[in-house]
């Protein structure tokens, strides 16, 4: 049974498992504060927890749903004879989640995606800038990689300035082929570790040629880091966003 639990946990993407674990710990603290045993997981305690998150912590309905999903996962994982799914089947919890959603309408997301016209403007502005050839190559390449590879920011940048071989991209994970390149990701939001394929499109903004030119310009040396800034540091999310905003 312990092995089965381990395999079930491994079936989740690392980021999802981390999110579920955070939700479970938060619920466990809530139960402890109210001097209520964690097991069996009581619907009444989940209802109280949801209400507490909404009324006292001012959390959004969508975030509360993610917390309940985490509680549901660990409830099913640890209880020998769990009740039916808290998240998808229990009518009380479903009605409560619907009620708090209706009480606070969803705020529109004003963030704009990087569309192809915006990408072209970014690359054109970058090419006319006074940055060094390496700097231009690094940014244009990562812009094209993120766009054509459908990558999230955290999948090709580092959260800090320290290289972590189990998380960050290394030179050895990049492989060129006749008309495409492959890049092995250490983690992704939906699939965990996976390999993406980015093809040559023979256009003026070709991601394959951009990566090939970057590989030729990249700093030589013993550092395994794929995306190095001109200062010789790993490309962090904050560094990338800073220069992206300057170019927009």
From TrEMBL:
GO molecular function: DNA binding
InterPro entries for the chain: Integrase_recombinase_N, Phage_Integrase-like_Recomb
UniProt KW keywords: DNA-binding
Protein name, entry field: Uncharacterized protein
Organism: Poecilia formosa (Amazon molly)
